[in-house]
Amino acid sequence: MTRSGAPAFTVLWRVVVLGAMTTAVVGQGTDAPSGFTFLAPVPYDTGEAGPGEVEPGDYNADGLLDLAVRTSGNGSEIQLLYGDGHGALLKDPTLGVAVAAGFGSGDLNRDGRVDLAVSQQGSSPGGGFGPCGSVPGTMVFLGSAGPLPFVFRQCLAGHLGVTLTDVATADLTGDGRPDLAVADDGLWGLRVYRGNGDGTFATTPIAAAGAGGIRVYGPLVVADANRDGRADVIARTGAPLGGAGGIATFMGDGTGGLRFLSTPAGGALASHAGVLATAVGDVNGDGTLDIAGVERGRAVAGEPLRNWLFVALGAGDGRVYSASWTALFPDGAVGDVVLANLDTDGAADLVAVHTGGDSARLHPGRGDGTFVADPTVLPMGLEPKFAAVADWDRDGARDLAVVDLSGGSRSRTWVSLQVAAAGIPDLVVTAVKAPAYAAAGQTYVVSDTTANRGTGGAGASHTRLYFSRDPRVDPGDADVGAHPVAALPANAGASSATGITVPPGTATGKYYLIAAADVAGAVTESNESNNTRARRMYVGPDLTVSGLTSSVAAAAAGTQVSLADTTRNLGAVSIPGSTTRFSLSTDRRLGATDVTLGARAVPALSPRATSTVTTIVTLPPLTSPGSYYLLATADASGSLVEAVETNNTRAIAIAIR
Questions:
Q1: Burial, 484: exposed, middle or buried (Cβ in 10 Å; 0-12, 13-18, 19+)?
Q2: Cα end-to-end span (Å), the chain
Q3: Taken in order 420, 69, 11, 15, is the CA torsion positive or negative?
Q4: What CA–CA distance (Å, rounded) separates 130 from 116?
Q5: Rounded CA separation 219/14 (Å)
Q6: Rounded to an integer, what distance in angstroms lies between the CA atom of residue 156 and that of residue 96?
Q7: What's 356's DSSP letter?
Q8: Cα–Cα distance measured from residue 376 to residue 391, given in angstroms and rounded to the nearest whole number
Q9: What does the alpha-carbon distance between residue 163 and residue 33 come to, in Å, rounded to a whole number?
Q10: How confident is the model over 601-647, as pLDDT tens digits?
Q11: Cβ–Cβ under 8 Å, residues 78 and 66
């Protein structure tokens, strides 16, 4: 399925596991704490047995949200349920597709209507073929205003013996035209089909580098994982020869090329091996992608093997994640995981579908990367699997749809509509602005916005500011300021500027400025666990190579190359003289096997100062022809203490003939 992200990620989607018989459900809770109130779920028949993804969208171009549900019985279907704008759904004729493995939606021919791309595994168990015949392939269907909702446009043929697992639609080539990312179970792993802008695609795909033999499973998440302005793909993966699965990022180059990047050893995700479901989004409000999921049977602190929910916070480079939160998940089969702001407090909430418990479990988010451990449990049919979140009744509160396995020879979709609690305020901090770098003992003007996201007025309160090593308020955090907040009606907010002093003697490193609304508890709120928001701040100096150019883009081994680098101190504290070293590498990362080409001295740099020098280096004479990278690394010896130690290297490509 298509899961697109932008620099500010608001809706978080997930990976699911496949099962047998299908049911889809929409419902609203009745006893949900922390601002959740859902009505009893309403079932809708969705045809063939076999569970599949459910994806909201306006599939008939009437301006109202609908649902598309994939089923995988004897000849698959994409079942369309048209919304009436009041929370009810009407079943429409289906789109028959043979053995569909996954689908993605988007405007593929840019005509304003939603189109579909569907992965076909091959012939159906009953012998039927889809438009791609008996071989696996990706089918393109364009939205139509005619009697049929979709019209077949193109088949992108796969390969016999290859099982396609999912497809996503997004602009992966940077030309403004939608492309297709197609995943499989190990021959190619992941490929990109370049879009022509008219609903057709180039028939020769671009294979992701390093992905051959990697089992890639959807839904695929398309987002800018490392904040370089280029679309990347995040997916759940399996070992080449089977075994436990993990999570990986395929880094995009902006032209359709993707490079497989496994979870780094030692990272927070490295210990999460039997991953059953994942969701991606910004759970702590720092503008970087985080990952939530459920893993199978990891032993924690001597506990027996169980299922665990986990959250890992991203550093913004697509590689490094830090552990943030875990919670025990009930035994039994696991379905979907979804991240979305269900209670409109600005913080992502987590929905985990418990197939073995016939329910969806809602964990309210605190906005700092942690969630309320004791969930709201919503009964959702029998053996629920897939889930989606959207506002089908247009009341401003997001609703929940779940597909389950309880329909016998038929499948159902359950929809549960959420209603907001009436007349209760809910104070949240929606924004914190502060300098990225600071110095110990210095004073800075920061600002924050406190808002009332509830349905009732809030009396006067105070917002307090803390300086902390993590994004949560702890007893030892430094209290650096406070300001009054006037009474706020529902859906109103107020911003304030405050002078704070970074505690003298603060060591060089990463910190957080936390704004906490109503710390004195003067206002009774519908949700008392979402009152904080954190802003990352770095204390001390920070060297980086902000610019690197080469005199040539290609050269013969043994020749000289002129490298011009700019080494910059991003920090707010001066840094002593250092050395910037140049290396030749097969990738963009500095490694032990990279060849040192030379170095140059960098003088002491005051805050935000730069040093630009051109250095002549010689390419190693015996280097084999091919594609390489020239690296420049600030403080290559690692002798200086910096606020950030992971941003010292810059890379540019060079071809050696």
A1: exposed
A2: 41
A3: positive
A4: 14
A5: 7
A6: 17
A7: G
A8: 19
A9: 43
A10: 999 999 999 999 999 999 999 999 999 999 999 999 999 999 999 89
A11: no
Q: Please give the Cα distance from 185 to 220 (Å, whole number).
A: 13
Q: Is 368 helix (H, G, I), strand (E, B) or coil?
A: coil
- Count of positions (residues) in the chain: 657
Contact (CB, 8 A) for 432 and 455: no
User: E strands, 107-198, where?
Assistant: 115-120, 137-143, 150-157, 164-170, 179-184, 190-193
Q: Cβ of 164: how many Cβ atoms within 10 Å? A: 29
Cα separation, 94 vs 81, whole angstroms: 9
CB 566 within 8 A of CB 546: yes
Per-residue confidence (pLDDT) for residue 14, from 0 to 100: 25
Distance of CA 100 to the CA centre of its chain: 25
Torsion of CA 261, 265, 270, 274, to 10 degrees: 70
Is 615 in contact with 513 (CB distance < 8 Å)? no
Give the C-alpha separation, 536 to 511, whole Å: 6
The angle formed by the CA atoms of residues 517, 522 and 523, to the nearest 5 degrees, is 75
Torsion of CA 131, 133, 139, 141, to 10 degrees: 0
Which pLDDT score, from 0 to 100, does residue 272 have? 55
What DSSP element (H or E) covers 277? strand 275-281
Q: What's the rounded Cα separation, in Å, for the pair 255 and 229?
A: 12
Q: Which of 164, 161, 99 is nearest to 127 (CA)?
A: 99
Tokens of 200: 């057709």
Provide the whole-model pTM: 0.65
Q: 386-390, 401-405, 458-462: which range is least confident on average? A: 401-405
Measured CA to CA, the distance from residue 116 to residue 142 in angstroms comes to: 6
